[in-house]
UniProtKB/TrEMBL annotation:
It holds the Pfam family DJ-1_PfpI. InterPro entries: Class_I_gatase-like, DJ-1/PfpI, Homeodomain-like_sf, HTH_AraC, HTH_AraC-typ_CS, INH-QAR. Keywords: DNA-binding, Transcription, Transcription regulation. This is Carnitine catabolism transcriptional activator. The gene is cdhR_11. Residues 233-331 form the HTH araC/xylS-type domain. The lineage of its organism: Bacteria, Pseudomonadati, Pseudomonadota, Alphaproteobacteria, Rhodobacterales. Signal peptide: none annotated. It comes from the Bacteria. It comes from Ruegeria denitrificans. GO terms for molecular function: DNA-binding transcription factor activity; sequence-specific DNA binding.
Length: 346
């Protein structure tokens, strides 16, 4: 633990880190205690957190976008943080970071063993998974990494709906979802280390409102095509064009020429979804696009994607998205109100 005046938070970064995450975290956390009173009374207060940027070797580098970063410390330095934030370390959803961050992972394990709270933003949780720190635990990251976690880190219970996964807090690990989830993580860290009042005041300064609805409304179904199983690939191609048909799973089974049990097993192995879950997810993705752009009634949208019963459509939609169809439309209409006038001028 830090023995200085203020709690020490270390932001771990690498060339794959987003500048918006690294410098956003730094600016907000470094302002705690100082900026709020300055905005109210014109007199800065005292900073209450010590914020340091760390990298494996401590040398200057450029992060994503060729933005320069000058770390304060290297992971080999004898820093004793109260908390660590593993910033996002971007990687393709097909590119597992095996063996890519050995020094960073060794340091994370060491400081965690010494009692530091270890947190991550977005793909930063991949480092924790690589280090075995998430084995047998629940964790989150950006929803697009769901398949990677299921295939390559099956010991981790991946919570793709969560913005902030706090279920492992008692063991000193907290993970946050997509890149903008650093807002939620920041509020959590300020509350934990500085108190609720500082968190509220900082949120007011930076207009941080959090993501109370979770990641699900933003998630998009990822559908990598299976290439090693020709029968399953053929069914994926077919259902993508025929998702609205009645009894879709039965039709895929018949098309494959397999018995139902074998088809289900091979489909799950190939896609990560049970067949009916895949169909439902596909239908909901189509419904979301209609709700975002079209003016049909909600019940009409349900029929178009294969649900004759409006109640069934609403139930399946809310279970998958976390919002009712009407609430989803309202949420994304706010974005369209900003985007459409700009698109018309282009």
């Amino acid at each position: 633990m830090s023995h200085g005046k203020n709690p020490l938070i270390v932001l771990l970064a690498a060339p794959e880190t987003s500048a918006s995450v690294l410098y956003g975290l730094y600016d907000v956390l470094a302002s705690v205690g100082a900026v709020y009173s300055d905005m109210l009374a014109g007199t800065p207060g005292n900073e209450v957190l010590d914020i340091k940027i760390a990298s494996a070797d401590g040398k200057p580098f450029h992060c994503l976008g060729n933005i320069p970063v000058e770390p304060h410390i290297a992971t080999d330095d004898e820093a004793s943080p109260d908390a660590v934030v593993v910033c996002d370390m971007y990687t393709s959803i097909y590119d597992v970071p095996k063996g890519r961050y050995p020094r960073e992972i060794a340091w994370l394990r060491k400081v965690h063993d010494k009692g530091a709270l270890v947190t991550s933003v977005c793909s930063g949780s991949l480092l924790l998974a690589e280090g075995g720190m998430l084995d047998g635990r629940e964790a989150t990251a950006h929803w697009a990494y769901r398949d990677m976690f299921q295939r390559h880190y099956p010991q981790v219970s991946f919570r793709n709906e969560s913005i902030l996964c706090l279920t492992e807090e008692a063991d000193g690990i907290v993970t946050a979802g997509g890149v903008s989830a650093w807002h939620d993580l920041t509020v959590y860290l300020i509350t934990k280390l500085c108190g609720y009042q500082h968190a509220i005041e900082t949120a007011k300064v930076f207009l941080i409102s959090g993501h109370s609805e979770g990641q699900s409304p933003y998630a998009v179904m990822t559908r990598p095509m299976e290439t090693s199983d020709a029968q399953i690939s053929d069914c994926q191609t077919w259902i993508a064009e025929n998702y609205e048909v009645a009894k879709p799973v039965e039709q895929m089974v018949a098309r494959s020429g397999l018995n139902a049990r074998t088809f289900s097993r091979r489909f799950k192995a190939a896609t990560g979804f049970a067949p009916i879950e895949y169909v439902q997810a596909l239908r909901i993705e189509e419904a979301k696009q209609m709700l975002e752009t079209d003016e049909q009634l909600v019940d009409e949208v349900g029929v178009l994607v294969g649900y004759e019963d409006p109640a069934s459509f609403r139930r399946v939609f809310k279970r998958g998205v976390g919002l009712s169809p009407a609430a989803y439309r309202k949420k994304f209409q706010r974005i369209s109100q900003i985007a459409k006038p700009m698109a018309a001028k282009a």
